[in-house]
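Name: acylphosphatase
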Amino acid sequence: MKHINIIVTGKVQGVFFRASTKAVADQMGVKGLVKNEKDGSVYIEAEADETTLEVFVDWCKEGPDKAKVENVQVLDGELKNYRNFEVVKKNLLW
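Structure predicted for acylphosphatase:
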């Protein structure tokens, strides 16, 4: 198992990017989360085996039909052992 953080920039908000990412992650068995950022990017944390993550990142470079992905940045992260893949609706402020 491996953990990566993915930052997707371009026209990636308002195009069902998060919902599509969840559907693809669920199909592939990827665990983690996806959320919109204030700067217009989409932030993803993904955990799976290396081969699955490569295919997942390739999908992120395309995104759903209406998305226009300009850049995908992938950073290695620490394993968090997510149980599922969830869409984070808002940044909660405590």
